[in-house]
Design a protein that fits this description.
alpha/beta; Rossmann fold; six-stranded parallel sheet; 2-succinyl-5-enolpyruvyl-6-hydroxy-3-cyclohexene-1-carboxylic-acid synthase activity; thiamine pyrophosphate binding
Amino acid sequence: MAIHQHVLNLVELCARKGIRQAIISPGSRSAPITLALARHPNMTTRAIADERSAGFIALGMAQQLRQPVILVCTSGSAVYNLAPAVAEAFFQEIPLLILTADRPKDWTHQQDGQTIYQTEIFGKHVKRSFELPADFEHADARWFAERATNEAVDLARTEPFGPVHINIPLREPLYPTVDERLGYGPVRIIEQLKSASALPAETWHQLQNEWETADRKLIAIGQGPHDPALLAVLKKISDEWRIPIVGDVISNVPRNQEFITQSDVFLSLSDEKIKEKLKPDLLITCGQSFISKQFKLFLRAHQPESHWQIQPHNRLADPFQSLTRLIPYEPTVFFEKLFSDIDYQRFVSNDEDEADTGFQETWQKLDRQATRLVRQFLKDDAVFHEWAVIQRILDALPVDSQLHVANSMPVRYVNLCGLDENQQIEVFANRGTSGIDGCLSTAVGAALTTEKPVTALIGDVAFFYDRNALWNNLIPANLRIIVLNNHSGNIFRIIDGPSRQPELDAYFETEQPLSAENTAKDAGLTYRKVTSYQELEAALPGFFVGEWAGLLEIETDKMTNAAQFQAYKALIQKTFNAD
C-alpha cells in the first residue's frame, strides 16, 4: 500500500463521482495530491503557478461545466491566495472542490516553513470545511476519510452549489520511491439521492389565487446562464399574458420585441409619475444578482404587495426588501407549470385574462425609447470614447460565442448597450463579489473548457491586476482579449462620490502609463492597438478569426470618457422629460 493511500483513494472517489478536471498550483507539500491526480487515467490536470489566478481559472471551468473542478495548492500562504476565487465561487454558486496540503498540527507555530492555521481558513465563504487525519494506523481514520470525502464531493454539487474545502495534513516522505507502485482504491461510494421538489396542491392553489388577484405583474431575471427553455416559457408568458419580463445582460435575457433590457436607462429618471406607472403589484424574481442599481433602487422605493423568489434551494436573499414568498423550485419548471395550470384553469372556466395590458405597454414603450436613444448617442463618431467603442465591439462579436465582461465600467457599459437575440451571445461576469481580481483568469478557464469563441472585455486596471492569467502555457486559441486602456480607474471619475473629491487623481483613479503590448508578447498573443474609430473598424473583422489567441488594446482619454457619460445622463433626463 502507498504511503498516502488515502490521497489516492480520495482522487479515485472524485473520479467515480464524475469529477474529471483539476487545476494544480505546484508545491512540495502537496506532491502526494498532485501525483495522485496527474497519474489518474480519468483526470485532466493543468498546472497554474499563481494560486490566485489558478482559483479563478478553475472557477471559469466549473462555470462552464456546471460540475465541480478540483483546485489544489500547497501549504502556507499559498492557501490564502485562493480566497478571492473561493469567495466569488461561494456567492456566484459555482462548485469547486478545494484540496489544500498542510503540515500535521504538531508543527503549527513551531518555526517550520509554510505552516499557518489552515483549519477552516476560508470561514463562511465555503459551504463546509473538512479536515482529514494526518495518521491512518487505525481503521476508523480510513473510514472517516472515505466518509468525509463522499460528503464533501456531494455537498459541492448540491444546490446551492459552491466551494467545499478539504484540508489534508501530510507527513513526510511526500514522494513515492522509484519502485513504488500507486494503486487507486478500492473505495466505497456513498450515493446521495436528490430529494423530489414538489409543492403541495394547496400551495399551488394559493399561488394561483395570488397571481390572479394581482393586476400588474412583473417578472425579473437575475444573473444566470443562458437557458433556452426558460427564455421560451418567459417569451410565451410575455406574449400571451402581456406581462413585462425584465433582465440585465448577465441574466442572458436578450433584446427582442418582448423583453425589457434597458431598464437601467429609463429608471434613472427623476420623474416619480413614471415610476408609479411602472410599480408592480406582484414581483416574481429568479436568478442571482442584478447589475442595475437603478432597478434595485426603484423596487426598494416602489415595493410590490407581493414578491416571490423562485430558486431550487432555501438560501434566503432579499435585495429589494420586499420578499413575501421564497419558493424552492427550479425556475424553468416553475414557470412552465404555472403557465400550464393557469392556462388550463382559464380554458375550463372560459375566463379571459383581465391583466392590465397597459402595464406591459408602458414598460415596453420606455424600453424601446431607451434603446433608440442609446443607439443614437453611441452612433455619433465625432468623439472617440470607450462606451461607443464597446457598442462597436458588441456589434462585431462572433455569432454563438461567449462574452466575459470584467467588473467596473465594462460590465455597466455592456448592460447599457444590450445584446440582440439573434447574436446568440452568452454573457458571463464575476458578479458574486463584483471584484476586478480574476476577471481575465475566469475567461481563460472558460476558454479552456468550451469550443466556442471567448471574448474577454476588460479595463486596464483589471487587466494588469490579473495578467498572471496569461503566465502559463495553456492559453487556448479561442480566446480573444480586448483591453480598454484609459490609464486609470476611470469609474471613479464617472460615479458621483469620488469624482467630487480633491484626492480623485492620486487615491482613486491611480493613473498608470502601462501598455498591454509586452504582456501580449510574453504570452505569445497576436497584438494590435487602436486609438480611433477608423483603426477599430479596420482591426475588428480580422481580430475574431485565425488560429491564435489575440489581444486588442484600445486606448481612450479618461476625461473624454467621463464627459461623454455625463452628456448621456443629461440627454436621458432631457429627452424623457420632453416626452
